[in-house]
Amino acid sequence: MIDSTLNSLGWRPYFSAQLTDAEADTLQVVRVMAVHRGRIDVAGADGELSVALTAKSAVLEITVGDWLLVDNAGPAVSRCLERFGLFQRRAAGSSGDVQLIAANVDTLFIVTSANRDFNIARLERYLAIAQDAGAYPVIVITKADMVESVTEFVQTASQLSPGLLIEPLDARDAEQVAVLSPWCESGQTVALVGSSGVGKSTLVNTLTGAHLETSGIREDDQRGRHTTTGRSMHRLPGGGWLIDTPGMRELQLYDVADDRENVFSEIVALASDCRFSDCTHVSEPGCKVLEAIDGGALDAARLKRFHKLLSEDRHNTASVAERRARDKQFGKLIKSVTAEKRREKSNK
């Protein structure tokens, strides 16, 4: 029987269906609260504990929000339950690695600010990743108290997707932040993403009543100094959980083709009526997308960003796939050489 504590941590029938009777009787169900180098903090029906990550458990690629089965003897991770959603990105740099950010997130607070950090292309990227993670996106515009009007910011963001929820507020004001409470109730998990300096830590402080470290605004560019250095879950007063993530300036898409099309749904709808099924919407005759731009129904800049994200996603996804293929080929080579050496040794 699943303890009510697990329900408050976000447990749902989706995870129960994955348990065998033997696992339910012998292993402890826990959720990952924080990930550190070499260990993880977890919580379950028996409380909180720290579990060392062995070479065996490290290959599971555990991230904050995951549900695990733990053998109390040790304790040691037995396996990771299948996620209903995963927030991920291609890691910064040229390695091509995929970085896991958070798992099993119900709502994604996409945080931007009413100043020069507001960037429509960045918001489109976050929306695509939210779709890929299976999380409901809510755009939170902070520092609304620092401008005469937030109307322009709200109107610009609202054009990204029909029905997109946008909440402008002062992240320091508990009464204004309370508008986010419907997504922070017991058993709900929300994640917080946004570039450095938009007020994520301040918003976390107000939402949780905690006092995380924050830094002031730099006078030269109105951007704050990055303060969050790890990923962890914070208990919310309403009973939900909030996952805070480091600021991500170099946000790169990975394998989100279908989700990107949801973000640019109006372009996809127009493209379905193009004369050619493989229309690239660049110069082809009978292109409904280009006709919409000429007629003023579609912003040319929007199409340009669509093409940019399409190119970026294809490049990053191919880069990761190519690296995995190289690693697999190298692994086969090592096995082949090892087998050959064993044969030579046995023939002597």
How is this structure best described in words?
The chain has a six-stranded mixed β-sheet with strand order 10-9-8-11-13-12, sandwiched between helices. It has a five-stranded antiparallel β-sheet with strand order 3-2-1-4-5. The chain has a two-stranded antiparallel ribbon with strand order 6-7. Among the domains are: 4-80, Nucleic acid-binding proteins (OB fold (Dihydrolipoamide Acetyltransferase, E2P), Beta Barrel), CATH 2.40.50.140; 86-244, Rossmann fold (3-Layer(aba) Sandwich). The chain has helices spanning 4-8, 13-16, 21-26, 55-58, 120-132, 151-158, 174-177, 200-208, 257-263, 265-271, 288-294, 300-347, and strands at residues 28-36, 39-44, 47-52, 67-71, 76-80, 86-90, 98-103, 107-113, 136-142, 165-168, 189-193, 232-235, 241-244. By secondary structure, the chain is an alpha/beta fold. A hairpin with a 2-residue loop joins strand 1 and strand 2 (39-44). Helix 5 (120-132) crosses helix 9. Helices cover 35% and strands 21% of the residues. Residues 212-229 have low confidence and may be disordered. The protein contains twelve helices and 13 strands.
